[in-house]
Amino acid sequence: MITVAPGVHRIEHSYTNFYLLEDDDRLTLVDTGVPTAWEPLLAALRSIGRALDDIEAVVLTHAHFDHVGIAERIRSQLGIPVYVHENDVPLTQHPWRYDHERRR
Q: Model confidence over 44-95: pLDDT tens digits?
């Protein structure tokens, strides 16, 4: 994990980046990497003295597999809300499937 600015931490994993944003005692996760990003997220949280319970929300910039990786796991197992454009919701539920957002 690399701190790129005060309260902004970049997690690098499998040639992807996702971010933890600190605001007082809460965190926002921006994107969630690939589906194997669970352990890197846990390691990043430990390195800044935080826990999964500190994550208040997940914001997905778009629903490509390298952005939605563990979003569904975070939502379903931890009850943390995931914010994504309504057109991208179906893609977030199947991170290994790389469909187009709209039919060609």
A: 999 999 999 999 999 999 888 888 889 999 999 999 999 998 888 777 776 6
- Look at residue 67 and give its three-state secondary structure: helix
This prediction's pTM: 0.85
Structure tokens at 101: 């957002």
Distance of CA 10 to the CA centre of its chain: 11
d(CA 19, CA 2): 9
Question: What are the DSSP calls for 34-70, one per residue?
Answer: STT-HHHHHHHHHHTT--GGGEEEEE-SS--HHHHTT
Looking up tokens 């039919």 gives 103
Q: Please report which helix (H) or strand (E) contains residue 58, including its range.
A: strand 55-59
